[in-house]
UniProtKB/TrEMBL annotation:
CDD domains: WHTH_GntR. Residues 18-85 form the HTH gntR-type domain. This is GntR family transcriptional regulator. It comes from Amaricoccus solimangrovi. It comes from the Bacteria. SMART domains: FCD, HTH_GNTR. InterPro entries: GntR_C, TF_FadR/GntR_C, Tscrpt_reg_HTH_GntR, WH-like_DNA-bd_sf, WH_DNA-bd_sf. One of its GO terms (molecular function) is DNA binding. Keywords: DNA-binding, Transcription, Transcription regulation.
Amino acid sequence: MEQSGRNILDRIVIATAPSVTSQVYDWMRERVLRGELAPGARLSETEIAGAIGVSRQPVREAFIRLASDGLAEVRPQRGTYIGKISVAAVLSARLIREAVESDLARMVAADPPVEMLARMAEEIALQERADAEGAVEAFIDSDDRFHRLLATGARQEAVWHDLEKLKSQMNRLRHMSMRAFDRAGTIGQHRDILEALRRRSPDAAERAVRAHLRQMLDELPRIAARHPDFFTD
């Protein structure tokens, strides 16, 4: 019976394209995270639907999904607005990320895969080029890949996916900080992490990761002071 069940499942082919709502949601979410839709900005179903060539219904549904993520706020009789950045959510995500990534670094440092070290070095080189060209989005994409390699090297990809679900508010701040502050400092911290891994030093790797991720504790109050209307407790 078990074998028969597997045969049935093997014959099932799922080839469903992403729904229009999901595509609109992904498009809008990315713009919120990048700061292209600023905190507090009012969203218009009609304008967005017209701009991307869809009906208002999937846009309305995307608004609801954004609100459930804490990225938008639906105000009855007033409209939908981009949510402000929650300081509490940023600090919580940063704390969890530090705890998890420092443990991943210790795990990897005990026996770092050669391929992982090579790919980390490649990402640092990409970050240097992106920094020189002022390509902030390319820099952030490379930064994400660099950190994901820690989970990959520790064979803990699922952990990275769990972290991704937690750090939407943190990512919004990252996009602001990468534009406002010296990206060379981030590159230097990545080099420190890579060097500790190459030396197979779990203690040094943990220290380097913790120092790197605590940088946000200095950046957050400075950005919030520059843009007080973008933040909420």
